[in-house]
Every structure is written in C-alpha cells, then in structure tokens.
Amino acid sequence: MKSMSIALIMFVCFFSFSGKVGAASDWTGEVTVKSIYTLNETRALIELSSFNNPGNCKVNSSGHIILDPSTHKTWFSMFLTAYAAKKPLNVYVAEACTEVWPGTSYGNIGHVRLL
Asked: Could you read off the pLDDT tens digit of each residue along the chain, which spans 115 residues?
C-alpha cells in the first residue's frame, strides 16, 4: 500500500510539473499592432494591443515581441500588413525571451496568423 501511495504521488507530481513546463507558451488571442520599432536590419520590436507575456519577459514601451526581419520576412510582412490595414492577428508567443538592452527582454514568436 505504501509503494502504491508513493507511485501515485510521483505520478501526480510528474504530470503537474510537466503541464507547467509547456503551458507558458500561448496564443495572444485577437490583437492589433500598436507600433513597430525597427532597431536595425536584424531586430524589430512589435507592440501589441494586449500581451499575456507567457515568458515573463521584461518588456517596456518599446514593444512586447521581437523578431529578425532579415530571416523572418513573412512574419514581418504580416505585422506590417496588419498595422497598415488595421487588421487583427493572433500570435503564438514562446515562453522564451530575448534580451535587447540590460534589464529588458522581449517575447519570441512561434507562429503568426492574420485574422
């Protein structure tokens, strides 16, 4: 009976922990692009109308998410289109953050859907 209780506790702990590990990455839901701040050819910060911040990034008024326009041309085009046309989109944000300046970090993008 004792070994069964221990096994049950381990089972519950394992699934509780593993559920939290992958749970942070998430879709933003319907949002609009408030601003695009291009730092250089390889860094652009996008400010969204709302941001759930799954990775607890240290965002500021410069933006919420970051992308590399030189390698993520499709995503960057989608953000520009959404901004210019005032159309909503849905962004899958990973729980990982990318530091830009000391004390700041921005969410990494996984997918973008123009709505």
From this structure: 555 554 444 444 444 333 334 447 999 999 999 999 999 999 999 999 999 999 999 999 999 999 999 999 999 999 999 999 999 999 999 999 999 999 999 999 999 999 9
| Both structure tokens of 33 | 């692009």
Query: What are the CA-CA distances from residue 67 to residues 19, 31, 41 (Å)?
Result: 27, 17, 10
